[in-house]
Here is the input.
Amino acid sequence: VGFVISRYQATLNRYPLLISFQPVISAISGNVGLQSSSIVVRSLALGLASERKFVQSARPELKVGLCIATCMSLLVGGTAFVWYAPLPRGDDGHTWHGASTFGVTIGLGVFVSMLIAAVSGTAAPLLSKRCGFDPSAMGG
Here is the structure.
C-alpha cells in the first residue's frame, strides 16, 4: 500500500476521493474471501465438497462470489459516481465524464478485488486439504 501511495501521490492529490475507497475495497474483499473459505471448510467437513472434485466443489461458491462482486461493484461504483458528480453550482471542477470514469474505475476495482478474494478464499481450503493440511487452519 505504501509503495502504491508513494508511486501515485500526484494522482491521489488530484483525486483525493480515490484514496477514500481503498479501505472499503480492501475490507469488502477480505470479508468475501474469508466467507468463501469458511463455507468451503464447512462443506469439506460435512462431506458436501471434495478436494478431488475441485471444480465441482468450487463452482457454487464462485457463482456466489461473482453475484456479490457484481452487486457491490454497482453499488460502490454508483456511490463513487454520485460523490464525484459536479455540484449544481459547477465550481468544483468536476465533470460528468470525470464522474463516470471515477465510478467505473471504483466499480471495476471492487469487482476484480472481490472476484480474486472469492477465488482465493474458495481455493485455499481445497488446495490445503489436497496437500494434506488442515483446511480450517489454512483457510483464513
